[in-house]
Structures are given as C-alpha cells and as structure tokens.
C-alpha cells in the first residue's frame, strides 16, 4: 500500500487541488492529513476545503490541528481526532498534528513511525530507532523550505516538493 501525507492546508484551495493532483499521480491508496484544514480563523474557504475532501472521504485518514475549530468538526465526512495509530504495510504509524505531541514529546505507545505537522518544515529523521517525519506544509512553508508532502510505501518514506521533486528519502528498515 502507498500512502501520501499532507499537512497545514490552511484553507488554500489552489494548493489543496495541487496536492490532490499529486495524490492521483502518485497512485496512492490513502491520503493522510495531519490537520490545520482551516486558515487561522474559520472562513468560507473551509467549506470549499471540506467539499473537495468529502468527495474523497473513503480514502482519507485525518487528525485535527490547532487551527481547526469546533465548526470544522461538522464539515467533514471523516473522523477527526487529535491522535491516531494506524497500520501501514505492517508498521505501526502514529499520527498527530504536532501541537500536543512532537519529536520531543512522543505519545504513549508511539508507533515505529511518528508523523506530525504543525511546524510547516518538512523533515525525515531516525531517532533512537524510530522514524520521525513531518511532511511540511502544502500552503505555507517556513524556514526556507518549499511546499511539500510525503509518501510512504513498503520500503521508503520520501519527502517531496508539491511539484513532485524528491527532497529526501529514508528506508523504513535499515
């Protein structure tokens, strides 16, 4: 199974549409979204974001971000918790936005792969045998990074620009 992961949409419809285009080009089976669907305040773009994503609800696994309000909860046809653990190709993967848990404060029973957004800075690293991954932001990158997302397949995790250019890769198993 191939997974694509994005974070920090912040109501940017153009970037979301580009990410959906990449999702289809990547031929991914699932789309993980690590929160912050909304802009910094609830707005009309939240309805557009939900309309686009609700058409793909069966393919989405998502968590809620710090910019997502109670109003956001009622817009989507998929569950939004703050923390989830899923199985990806036999590997336990923990998902969160990053404002409650992060690389320095891992949740109890954290998976072999820890995915979080929030910082808007994409990165992949191995720390004490665990892979810590941040897809960056598809709309508002920070720290000199570019708009980015990541893919996970049976062997690798790849961080890519929103245009599909490979930034970094890491093997899941050494």
What's a quick, concise take on this entry?
With 174 residues, this protein is of the alpha/beta class.
Q: Would you write up a description of this structure?
A:
The protein has 174 residues and is α/β, with parallel strands linked by helices. Helices cover 16% and strands 33% of the residues. The protein is built from three helices and twelve strands, in the order βαβαβαβββββββββ. The strands form two sheets. Strands 4-3-2-1-10-11-12 form a seven-stranded mixed beta sheet, covered by helices on one side. Strand 2, helix 2 (45-54) and strand 3 form a beta-alpha-beta unit. The longest helix has 14 residues, at 13-26. The protein is globular. The two termini are 19 Å apart. The mean pLDDT is 94.
Q: Residue share in helices?
A: 10-25%
What is the number of helical segments per DSSP (H or I, 4+ residues)? 3
How many β strands by DSSP?
12
- Taking all Cα atoms into account, the compactness measure Rg is 15 Å
Question: What string, H for helix and E for strand, traces the elements in order?
Answer: EHEHEHEEEEEEEEE
Low-confidence stretches: none
Reported for the largest beta sheet, the result is:
7 strands, mixed
* Main sheet strand line-up: 4-3-2-1-10-11-12
Structural category is alpha/beta
What best-fitting shape do the alpha-carbon axes yield? globular
How far do the termini sit from each other? Answer: 19 Å
The overall pLDDT average reads 94
Approximate strand percentage: 25-35%
